[in-house]
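Summary: Need help interpreting a holo structure output

Steps to reproduce:
1. Submit the protein chain below together with the SMILES for 2-acetamido-2-deoxy-beta-D-glucopyranose.
2. Request a joint structure prediction with the ligand placed.
3. Inspect the structure token block that comes back.

Expected: a single structure record containing both the chain and the bound molecule.
Actual: see attached output.

Input attached:
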Amino acid sequence: MEPSIVFSLLFLLLAPTCGYVQEGFISGVISNKGLDYAKELLIEKGIASVVMLQLPEIENSAQVPFVGNAKVVLSDITIKGVQVNSSSVKTGESGVVVAVSGATANLSMRWRYSVSSWLIPIGISDSGNASVEVTGMQVGLTVNLRNQEGSLKLTLLDYGCYVGDLSIKLDGGASWLYQLLVNAFEGNIASAVEEAISEKIREGIVNLDNSLQSIPKQISLDKTSALNVSFVGNPVLSNSSIAIAINGLFTEKNEALVSQRYPKGLKISSACGGLPKMIKLSIHENVFKSASLVYYNAGKMQFIIDELPDQAILNTAEWRFIVPQLYKRYPNDDMQIHISVSSPPVVQVTYQHVGATIVVDITINVLEDGEVIPVACISVEVSALCAVEIVGNNIAGRLRLQNFSTYLKWSKIGKLHMNLIQSLMSSVLKTVILPYLNFKLNRGFPLPIIGGFSFQNANILYTQPWIAVCSDVLLLEDYHLGRHSAYVS
Ligand SMILES: *[C@@H]1O[C@H](CO)[C@@H](O)[C@H](O)[C@H]1NC(C)=O
Ligand SMILES: *[C@@H]1O[C@H](CO)[C@@H](O)[C@H](O)[C@H]1NC(C)=O
Ligand SMILES: *[C@@H]1O[C@H](CO)[C@@H](O)[C@H](O)[C@H]1NC(C)=O
Ligand SMILES: *[C@@H]1O[C@H](CO)[C@@H](O)[C@H](O)[C@H]1NC(C)=O
Ligand SMILES: *[C@@H]1O[C@H](CO)[C@@H](O)[C@H](O)[C@H]1NC(C)=O
Ligand SMILES: *[C@@H]1O[C@H](CO)[C@@H](O)[C@H](O)[C@H]1NC(C)=O
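--- attached output ---
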């Protein structure tokens, strides 16, 4: 199996459901519905991995009445197709059990025999094709998941394949051959199928485990930050779900953030407000706080505006009637606005929305003879509401201005009218700062975990201090290799 697919599958398998305690700031729960989907994908991939699989040659000899000692070789034994009638996935404290029952498989093979006996001095031989139909096949496996130093370790606890019935159809050949095949080879063919499928299961799980081990413990988001996706605690398996948790905090690139302790005993609900969704991702408000801190500390929360749709605003001439002192000292000079967030924005998840409080210093600069001269600084405290949305596989936000308050920090051009500042700031906030922040927020950051999958019909729930994304997921077409009832003829 392609590692990336396996990886995604696994992740799906890992996702968990009722109230449970986790110690990460991002937690994922895979519901029964999600587990069912993961199981279907696993079976699909499993079938794709055995179709066209060639089993080892089988050789046998037997004494055939009136014919003599026949040596028969079955070769090119190939699994042509597998059909699964019913399957199930169950989770319990001891692991995840996937079972397939009543599966059928078609095989093709070649036979050849040679007979030598004193009765027939000239050896006779013949060859031809045959097909085999296997029915009532049962396949099962049990895996367990543990946290191993921040990675997930997948262990195969038990697995097997059992062939119920087998029928052979011979193209040509003598009737004694048919009887011989049935008598002497049925068991061999059945165990060859059982062994081959069991081996594929073992291989598949080893590959899945390798893919899990190779998941990076941190996802680089941009030049400034990375998301710590180390697993914390062991997956919690209940009879209806699997829950996993990752650290989930933003860290500054190449620099370990002072590890934030997880509040003890914080319970996460696995309910999706009655919606039957495959997964639920819960994100603690500390994730947003850590993002705010990282970007603030990295000095990323400041920018300069020297271009506006209405460029005239950025010239002192435009202000000569409103702020005459400014025009008097710097006639016809260009201006720029330096915006700098002066403390890490405070982010809070409530029961209805995400609230953000941002304090910005807005400094007005005048450009005179190539020199940047700060002339006034206004501090603005902005309260905004953030609506969270899922855009593709990213979690994004849209800020809406709630209210703001301003005060003049300092001025080199004398007193400014507060009314004037209020209305000026209102327009700067609405036309410049919020659109700019929304442009940044609109891209959001990628939700960890699901590679190759896309969210479908995601709902956002606010449950202080968590935001939950309840969603179905779909494996993208590119990742679909082979269909469920692959049959190659
Ligand atoms: C498939 O399963 C159903 C019940 O689960 C059973 O009635 C049916 O006979 C099975 N079909 C085959 C081909 O095994
Ligand atoms: C096996 O082949 C037979 C006839 O060729 C077909 O009817 C049956 O559906 C096939 N079964 C599978 C599992 O592909
Ligand atoms: C047996 O099958 C092979 C392909 O699988 C084919 O080339 C060959 O002609 C067949 N032989 C007979 C005797 O049908
Ligand atoms: C799962 O376990 C809970 C109690 O732990 C029980 O009430 C519930 O019926 C079980 N559900 C299933 C489907 O077994
Ligand atoms: C990432 O999270 C793990 C688990 O909480 C923690 O042990 C590790 O120190 C964190 N790494 C960084 C770089 O903060
Ligand atoms: C906005 O209004 C809320 C209550 O309506 C108040 O708590 C908050 O301090 C105000 N924010 C600002 C920046 O004035």
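--- end attachment ---

Reviewer comment: The first strand starts at residue 20 and ends at 21. Residues 150, 228, 230, 232, 247, 251, 256-257, 259 surround 2-acetamido-2-deoxy-beta-D-glucopyranose (ligand 5) (CB under 6 Å).
Status: needs-info
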